[in-house]
Here is the input.
Amino acid sequence: PKGSHTYLATLQFEGGTMDIDTRKTLYTIETSRAGMKDIAIEGNILDMAFSGVEQKYMPDEVWLMVQSIGSGQIHIQHGTYNPETQSISFQNDIEYLEEVVNGAIEFDGYWKKSGVDKNKKKFISVGKPKVLLQREDGSLKYGNYDSPDVPLLTIQPSGVVDCSMILGWNFQSATEVSNDMGMVVAYIKDDGKAYYRTITNGAMDVNPFPLNFSGAVTPLQEIRTFRTNDYRVGFTVTDKVNNLYTILTERYWQGDSVESI
Here is the structure.
């Protein structure tokens, strides 16, 4: 959509250099205020989540799910973003997750109009982030990060090979109606196929929905979820022969949200 868009891009690599050719992007990028900051993370970042506060232009909290190098243990790190220095300071509150081999972390929330320009949408997060935990026994669990006494929701009881999670678009306005897609959880089972469930207001789909990637050679190996800037949600998988396949939702024009998959 038209308008001004601000985003924070984070990339992780072990060495070398990285060049971004702005001529090959779909949007004009203002480079006058571009900057790079190094963050020392002892492990491989599996996923990250950014909070959204109505009074602030940029996120003030960053949450990482990290897999330690060597031991393979997974932990969560919490940091705060300083807009003046454009840097992130992480707290020493590392919490290791027992019997977890993979996972994802994401804030629940919604988007709302920001300022006079209706094309400017600001993300407002709600509470602490949600976590998706793939356990050693092949089960997949979902729930609140900060509520240890609340049982986690079982997405899939067994056979999970890989997983991913993204918050679907949910635009709130006094005059427009949004189709709240909820939290979208995607995963690959040991049958080599991909599935997804949505969780809206704490309620989960009764049955998982299959994702059919035409031409993909099973068994599928990896799956990732993402949002696009034109209000779609996408799924990308890596198949048996390392080819990538992507499915995108249709655009939902009313309320600048997305329709069902």
About this structure: Residues 43 and 70 are 9 Å apart (CA to CA). The two ends are 21 Å apart (CA to CA). The longest strand covers residues 121-135.
